[in-house]
Amino acid sequence: MTRLKKIIPAFLLSLLLCLQTGAQEYFMHTVTQGQGLYSISRMYGVTEDDIIKLNPGSEKVIRAGESLKIPARKNTSSGKFHTIQKGETLYRLSVENRVSVKEICDANPGLSAQNFKIGQVITIPAPSDEDPLASSIENAGDETPQEIITDTETILTDTARFKGTHEVKRRETIYRICNTYGITQDEFLDANPEYRYRKLSRGAIVNIPFSAEELARRRIKRDQALSRIESIPDSTLFTMNERKNGQSDGTITAALILPFSLDDTTSLEQKRMVEFYQGILLALDKLKNEKVSVNLKLFDSKGEDNPLEPLLQSGKLDDVDIIFGTRHSNHISAAAKWSTDHQVPLVPLPLNSNMDDVYNNPYVFQINTPQSYFHQEIFSHFFRQFPNPNVIILDADEYSRNPFIDGLKTALTDHDLTYTTVLIDTVYQQIMNALVPGKQNLFIINTPNSEPLNTMLPVLQLVTRNKDPEIETHLFGYPQYQYYASDHLNEMYEVDTWFYSWFYTNNMLREAVEFNTAFRRAFSRQMMISYPSYASYGYDTGYYFLKGLATYGRDFENHLNDLETDPVQMGFKFERVNNWGGYINRKVFFVNFSNDYKVIKIDFDK
User: Fold this and answer.
1) Looking at the predicted structure, is the pLDDT value of residue 263 above 60?
2) Where are the alpha helices (DSSP H) in 495-598?
3) How far apart are CA 119 and CA 242, in angstroms?
4) pTM, whole model, 2 decimals?
5) pLDDT of 555-588, one tens digit each?
6) pLDDT for 5
7) Pairing mode, if any, of strands 599-603 and 589-593?
8) Percent helix, strand, coil in the chain (nearest 5)?
9) How far apart are CA 316 and CA 308, in angstroms?
């Protein structure tokens, strides 16, 4: 195998290099469901204006399936982005860019034989000094099929100019040597041109060339080996170079890093952090009952101005299998860099939905979904639940800007559906006029704020009571509606209220009852009343990830949506944000306070 470390001759590489037609100023990105200009710009390290300049009109709307031009990196010291073209293979990209297959696979953990296809964007590391083919096979080790090793050795070793050498004996002539080795005198003299003009002498060392027949056989053998190497299926290369994720062996070590603000035990933020921690402790207690051992390391990150680097560089985290927490953006970025360097999963506190680290760090798991992805998930469920909608937007004029409403209007247009907008202050008769028999009439206020809801609920009650009983009506709203339910529950029931949310719990559900009981028993008090509940956040998050590590080891990344954990408040539906980035949670629930006085929580992924 050590022979594989030799350099492939330049002529081999030249056979595989593509002609370049000039410096590429941009590459193509195909928009996927949920992506917006913000997420795409962060993904590629460019500004939104950079994208808009190359794609006029993209500032208004972009849609899934659309192709965008993205400015190419000027500095390739950190690698480059590349859009896979027709006919390209993983092997060809490796050789053309002077990097090993393993380096490409490691830089794109989301890439597989299944999604290696035209239009996919991948990141290609900067060129290395090692030969790409040899280093790919060296890294794969025992995973390399024997036929690939044999063909590679043929290419790497079959490069000698001469078959060997010969020591001239007494009275030996060129003619006799040629007869001995089956070569012509011209072939001998081409290999030893100095003997065109002088005689052989005893003891001289001469080169023995390959005969024409041997050269032909050599060339055929090398060409066949090269052809087989070039034709290695991508699936074989991915299997050879996939990351090895072992099972958890014994105790899982987890770190929890939170700003506990121990010098300010009265602040709401401090109480939230403590309850998140207490939720984690309850998750550990449940795992202990399931024979899962977890060693939890607890660290106080303190305030935003306190640097996190001293902790990260102290060695105290070197044995951890996963990190939970970090609250402030600068702490998250520092922890994210550390997680990349040490290949340790990082699960930031589920508060901020617009973290940039997830777009370029394969070890970040973002619990709260970025807004553009979140809205697309909502719209997808919206049309599943309401396939025949008549949307009536109730416009509180002072709330003119609402990304959800803007996105919904675009989604309705894409489905060839219309919508009606009526002003709140002249609403009753206009609503009655806007109702359409045979449709699912949906009232949507253009803001999640409580004041317009307070204004509209009595009006919608009146509409519900006075409309034709055959006409179907619903109020559709926002996660904040669960905050307001205690004050307006009967009205919400009567108008058949629906809302979307990434978190929801009903205290009558078994999981919630058991969790509340466990919390009171463990900490001798009730949880804070908050939406969302931080104790439930800690419990759901801790149990999900630690259960995954206990069940699948580091291979849990390939089983993220196989785990069934009965969360109290949230759900998990993780997808990689791109081939080289981390994971976002796209779980969205719909909740219905129905007009027959039931509360229904709909999980569209079950």
Assistant:
1) yes
2) 510-523, 534-552
3) 22
4) 0.82
5) 888 888 888 888 999 999 999 999 999 999 999 9
6) 41
7) antiparallel
8) 45, 15, 40
9) 12
